[in-house]
Amino acid sequence: MKNWMKALLIIAPKDFRDEELFHTKEVLEKSGIVTKIASTKKGEAKGMLGGKATAELTIEEVKVEDYDAVIFVGGSGSSIYFSNKHALSIAKEAFSAGKVVGAICIAPVILANAGILKGRRATVWDGDFVKMLEAGGAKYTGKNVEVDGKIVTANGPHAAREFGKKIAELLR
Questions:
Q1: Separation CA 122–CA 72 (nearest Å)
Q2: Residue 5: pLDDT band by 50, 70, 90 thresholds?
Q3: What is the Cα 70 distance to its own chain's centre?
Q4: What CA–CA distance (Å, rounded) separates 48 from 165?
Q5: Is a pLDDT exceeding 50 seen at residue 1?
Q6: What is the domain partition of the chain in residue ranges?
Q7: I want to staple 124 with a disulfide (CB 3.0 to 4.6 A). Which of 18, 94, 112, 129 is the partner?
């Protein structure tokens, strides 16, 4: 058994939500989890609040078997993944392999569109995103953070640290 866990954080190349990446990543790393960042392109990505992150690999290069958790970070930019075949495939593959799968803010829509939230409790940022989640078969709970099996969803930046903690707990 390996003694270090790895989590992949998938962000939009622009307009990811800063706290949802940075706070989640910080909590995971403090728990001893190694993190990597992926996006549609390698290099610098910009957050909605001006934060910068470096994507080390593209979503096309992601090998799900290399990670114990796959996390989709929200922010308005994450809507580019709602129908992205690579993103949906990563979510499905991670779920099928029994990995921890996380999504925060509007990103739970990606999980719903990947078909992995059918009959499961989940949360998401409000408004039309709730309808999108339910269209994918999820049971919307409205909680800040919802855990159903190995799927963790959260509804926005204020929930990022708790979101990170729940993922870290599942990886222990």
A1: 14
A2: very high
A3: 6
A4: 23
A5: no
A6: 6-171
A7: 129
Q: Is the dihedral of CA 65, 72, 22, 60 positive or negative?
A: positive
Tens of pLDDT, residue by residue over 26-48, are: 999 999 999 999 999 999 999 99
Distance of CA 7 to the CA centre of its chain: 10
Q: What is the mean pLDDT of residues 82-100?
A: 98
| DSSP per-residue codes, 12-26 | -SEEE-HHHHHHHHH
**Contact yes or no for 75/48 (Cβ under 8 A):** yes
pLDDT tens column, 72-84: 999 999 999 999 9
Task: Return the residue matching tokens 């910009």.
Answer: 46
**Closest by CA position to 146, among listed 130, 131, 135:** 130
* Segments of the chain assigned E as strands: 6-10, 14-16, 34-39, 43-47, 52-55, 57-58, 69-72, 100-104, 121-122, 139-140, 145-148, 151-154
CB 83 within 8 A of CB 136: no
pTM of the model: 0.97
Distance CA 11, CA 17 (A): 9
Closest CA to 9 of 93, 98, 69: 69
Cα dihedral sign for 27, 30, 36, 37? Answer: positive
At residue 157, does pLDDT exceed 50?
yes
